[in-house]
Amino acid sequence: MNRKYSAVAVVFANCADRYVLQGYTESRTFDQMLADAQQVEGLTGIEVIGGWHINDQNQHAVVKQIHDAGFQLACVIPEIWANPKWGWGTLAATDPGIRRDAIDRIKVAMDLAASTGCNQCGSVCPVNIPLPALMHRLREIQDERGLRPWRERFALRGWGWLAARPGLYRWLTRRAARYLRWLADDSGRIRVLGLAPGWSDGRDLPAPPGRTFHELYAARKRA
Predict the structure, then answer these.
(1) Number of folded domains in the chain?
(2) Residue 22 maps to which CATH number?
(3) Closest Cα to residue 204, out of 219, 223, 183, 221?
(4) Among 18, 38, 58, 181, which residue has the least CB neighbours within 10 Å?
(5) How confident is the model over 23-78, as pLDDT tens digits?
(6) 132-140 contacts: CB < 8 A, separation 24 or more?
(7) Is residue 156 part of a domain?
(8) How far is CA 149 from the centre of its chain?
(9) Beta strands per DSSP E along 111-215
(10) What residue numbers bound the domain in which 169 lies?
């Protein structure tokens, strides 16, 4: 059997306990955690905690960080233990509000795992259950029944409407490319991502060239 081993990212963070809640060392970035994980022989996967390391705003950047460090995303863990409100249980709590909150946290972690498309759960399933496909279908059903957040449904429908109008799409993306380039500092990095600052909370983003793919492709053909 070809065994694979993974570790949750927090084991490489600053150690904390009930005596020193802030940790015994300085806070560590996700990149620093990955650098330490690279020193562990035989480690091939990294597990992350939904809401801590990965969220709707940074999910693709985090997956890229993990891959660039030579690992696979092994698991997205729901955070249902660190907050004091979980002290009397989660799914088995007597308070129905706590149970509902725990279920919602688990659903968020499932959505994040599905949207990353990493397929790690499917690749290691001993009975070949197509877990990513099932999770994608779950999201489709949630959207069809109006169970997804209205902002998400509105954004997806808006993008679909725009993508069906190539002329308008290209006009807007040209301006978006120039706007992102304008946000960059002298080093070519975006420190705060304008209307979506969550994308740059934990890292800087490389600025695009200021022109869209269509513009770059057209220029290359003319050259």
Answers:
(1) 2
(2) 3.20.20.150
(3) 183
(4) 18
(5) 777 888 889 999 999 999 999 889 999 888 888 778 888 888 998 999 988 888 88
(6) 135/110, 135/111, 138/110, 138/114, 139/111, 139/114, 139/115
(7) no
(8) 17
(9) 189-190, 205-206
(10) 165-222
